[in-house]
Amino acid sequence: MSARLGNTRASKSAATRQRQAQAVERAFQCNTCQKKFTRKSHLKAHISAVHKKAKPHKCKVCGKRFGFSSDLNTHSRVHTGEKPFECNVCGKRFSESSSLTKHSRLHTGEKPFECNVCSKKFSHAWSLSSHSRLHTGEKPFECNVCGKRFSVSSSLTKHSRLHTGEKPFECKVCGKRFNQACSLSSHSRLHTGEKPFECKVCGKRFHVSSNLTKHSRVHTRKSHRVQGVLQKIQLRQQSEEALQAAHFSTNI
């Protein structure tokens, strides 16, 4: 009896695998991009959303439309605040699984995107794209006011504030506003007293890196002066030794 039951289960499992294999063989293929699907309904949805650019799925809250129901479901979390994907390390939650995947690389140190030119690795695809433009010289982001071009969109955003006068970063202590986050960070150290930039020569500390750069030139100039003095002393010694040698040879 048990042997017969085992044979029945094995035959069912084999039949299931055979049906799955036949499903792959009978795959529905897109005539435009040759992508294959196991169901005709999936092929129709693909053609409608990708090639015909149809967006039949509408958000009931804001009216935004999507080509796939899965994209609408993801978008809906913007309104509901739902974040079903949780980081196992720090507990931070995300509305999209792709965002969790990207975040996880902060903990694992994984950098799967490698530059074909210099082999530098990155944790995000967009970081690699931005880096690649250093090699190609491509600057696709253009300022509408002055025509200046940039390799990354964030640089264009910062530049645009020179024209608009926008200063979105405000100091919580004194209310002073800045057009760049780094400027606010530097300013904040005036209030906290933090001086993270240390001179390797004398140990003096500064709250902004530019002040350290200026200070370092003091040591550079001193070093040059010392080298100049040492060279003069060396030349004088060499001259005196030469005169002594000449005087010695004359007396002989």
Automatic annotation (TrEMBL):
<feature type="domain" description="C2H2-type">
    <location>
        <begin position="113"/>
        <end position="140"/>
    </location>
</feature>
<keyword id="KW-0677">Repeat</keyword>
<feature type="domain" description="C2H2-type">
    <location>
        <begin position="57"/>
        <end position="84"/>
    </location>
</feature>
<keyword id="KW-0479">Metal-binding</keyword>
<keyword id="KW-0863">Zinc-finger</keyword>
<keyword id="KW-0804">Transcription</keyword>
<feature type="domain" description="C2H2-type">
    <location>
        <begin position="85"/>
        <end position="112"/>
    </location>
</feature>
<keyword id="KW-0805">Transcription regulation</keyword>
<dbReference type="GO" id="GO:0000978">
    <property type="term" value="F:RNA polymerase II cis-regulatory region sequence-specific DNA binding"/>
</dbReference>
<dbReference type="Pfam" id="PF00096">
    <property type="entry name" value="zf-C2H2"/>
</dbReference>
<dbReference type="InterPro" id="IPR036236">
    <property type="entry name" value="Znf_C2H2_sf"/>
</dbReference>
<dbReference type="GO" id="GO:0000785">
    <property type="term" value="C:chromatin"/>
</dbReference>
<feature type="domain" description="C2H2-type">
    <location>
        <begin position="28"/>
        <end position="56"/>
    </location>
</feature>
<dbReference type="InterPro" id="IPR013087">
    <property type="entry name" value="Znf_C2H2_type"/>
</dbReference>
<dbReference type="GO" id="GO:0005667">
    <property type="term" value="C:transcription regulator complex"/>
</dbReference>
<comment type="similarity">
    <text>Belongs to the krueppel C2H2-type zinc-finger protein family.</text>
</comment>
<keyword id="KW-0862">Zinc</keyword>
<feature type="domain" description="C2H2-type">
    <location>
        <begin position="141"/>
        <end position="168"/>
    </location>
</feature>
<feature type="domain" description="C2H2-type">
    <location>
        <begin position="169"/>
        <end position="196"/>
    </location>
</feature>
<dbReference type="GO" id="GO:0031519">
    <property type="term" value="C:PcG protein complex"/>
</dbReference>
<dbReference type="GO" id="GO:0008270">
    <property type="term" value="F:zinc ion binding"/>
</dbReference>
<feature type="domain" description="C2H2-type">
    <location>
        <begin position="197"/>
        <end position="224"/>
    </location>
</feature>
<keyword id="KW-0539">Nucleus</keyword>
<dbReference type="GO" id="GO:0000981">
    <property type="term" value="F:DNA-binding transcription factor activity, RNA polymerase II-specific"/>
</dbReference>
<protein>
    <recommendedName>
        <fullName>C2H2-type domain-containing protein</fullName>
    </recommendedName>
</protein>
